[in-house]
Design goal:
Blueprint lengths: L5 H11 L11 H6 L4 E2 L3 H11 L5 H10 L6 E2 L5 E3 L5 H27 L5 H19 L1 E2 L1 H7 L6 E4 L7 E4 L1 H10 L4 E5 L8 E4 L1 H4 L9 H16 L4 H8 L3 H11 L2 E4 L5 E4 L15 E4 L13 H4 L3 H4 L9 E4 L2 E8 L5 E5 L5 H18 L11 H7 L1
Antiparallel strand pairs: 1-3, 2-3, 4-8, 5-6, 7-8, 9-10, 11-12, 12-13, 13-14
Helix pairs in contact: 5-8, 5-10, 10-12
């Protein structure tokens, strides 16, 4: 069994995930492809993760890929998280991950309608409202949620949540229905209102936005292709890493791996990792020393469940209590510190270990580069972490 030690894993991250300067790309879709998909929960992450992987990044270049060329697609995916994959992987994520989420969400919404509203046949009501909403969107081509609720007033149906509790609330079903339709692949998020930090998206249909359906694969073949993509970008990884990243059952992961028949490798400490067949050769040429800043929720930082080999003891300072990563500094394939942006716009940083004078110089250059790129835009991560709060104060 071939050994792929920590040094080789770190070299692979630098090259495959394009976070070392020599491996940056001119193609926004390739930047996303290098990590399977960009995280989209926080709109800023999409832009900052692309910034870290592009040779000469601009907001206009990223928006061109997202909203004009549409080589990137925003959709719900693994772990019920929003992702922005390259277009060819959108059907894979839809069938492998979002489809199951839609089934769960439909059952949940029907149950809530049954106990939190006066509707007698919740399933029929939901199906009728959903179909009517899609028809309204097909007429408009693009619309915000408020516009759709005007066309289909039943979207304003009130749902009584947590009845009898101190936090009891009454909410419209608009967001829940649109979330369900997007998980089913019947509608899709388009261009947002306002700046690139906005999360108020216009809704449209895949047929209008992409010229084709999203729901084109079987669940089984999609799961195989998603595992193939993950192993290509993140391998070697363990079965535990893969289960965490996909949030699939052990049986789902086992079936996909049985089809792929990946190669087992020794990760240097007796742990068995997996790579695609024929993908166990050393990274060449050797990767020179490098350093970069990655944003909160970056796919590289969030790529594995077992993080000791690149995170060390820094998790408590750089992750929140729910496991969301904050802004990190990477040097030679490991996390060595974190950064934040102050209200003045200045990007500031702190090392959590000794990195040497050359990396200190590189960090100064990266902070200046990011400060210039952000300009007068101030980015506050959606999920705050201890070090980011300290630095931004």
């Amino acid at each position: 069994m071939r050994t792929i030690d920590v040094a080789e894993r770190r070299a692979r991250v630098a090259k495959r995930q394009r976070i070392a300067a020599p491996f940056r790309t001119d193609d926004v879709a390739e930047a996303a492809r290098s990590v399977v998909a960009l995280h989209g929960t926080d709109p800023a992450t999409v832009y900052l993760s692309a910034w870290a992987r592009l040779k000469k990044p601009t907001v206009e270049q990223i928006e061109q890929a997202l909203y004009v060329d549409r080589t990137l697609v925003r959709l719900l995916g693994m772990r019920r998280t929003m992702f922005v994959p390259p277009r060819e992987l959108a059907p894979v994520i839809q069938a492998s991950s979002a489809r199951a989420i839609a089934v769960e969400q439909r059952k949940l919404l029907i149950r809530h309608l049954g106990v939190g509203s006066d509707i007698e046949d919740a399933a029929t009501f939901l199906d009728d409202v959903a179909a009517s909403t899609v028809r309204a969107l097909e007429v408009r081509k693009e619309a915000f949620a408020q516009e759709l609720s005007t066309d289909e007033p039943r979207l304003k149906t009130k749902l009584r949540m947590a009845q009898g509790k101190s936090y009891e609330a009454e909410v419209n079903i608009t967001t829940r229905v649109l979330f369900l339709l997007s998980a089913e692949g019947k509608i899709i998020r388009g261009r947002p209102r306002g700046t690139w930090l906005s999360s108020q998206y216009r809704w449209t249909t895949p047929e209008v936005w992409l010229g084709e359906h999203l729901d084109t694969m079987t669940t089984e073949e999609a799961k195989v292709e998603l595992v193939r993509a993950w192993l290509s970008a993140f391998g070697p990884g363990t079965i535990a890493d893969l289960r965490w990243w996909t949030k699939w059952t052990a049986a789902d992961v086992k079936r996909a791996l049985a089809t792929l028949e990946p190669t087992e490798v020794d990760l240097g400490n007796g742990t068995i990792g997996l790579v695609l067949n024929g993908d166990d050769a050393p990274t060449k040429p050797a990767v020179k020393p490098w350093l970069t800043f990655l944003p909160a929720l970056d796919p590289t930082t969030m790529g594995w469940q077992q993080r000791e080999w690149y995170l060390g003891e820094h998790g408590k300072r750089l992750f929140d209590t729910n496991g969301n990563a904050g802004p990190t500094i990477w040097a030679d394939g490991r996390v060595v510190g974190g950064w934040a942006q102050r209200k003045s716009g200045e990007v500031v940083y702190q090392f959590l270990e000794d990195v040497g004078s050359e990396h200190e110089w590189r960090a100064e250059q990266e902070a200046e580069r990011l400060t210039r790129w952000l300009g007068d835009v101030c980015v506050i991560p959606r999920f705050r972490t201890p070090l980011e709060r300290e630095l931004s104060a």
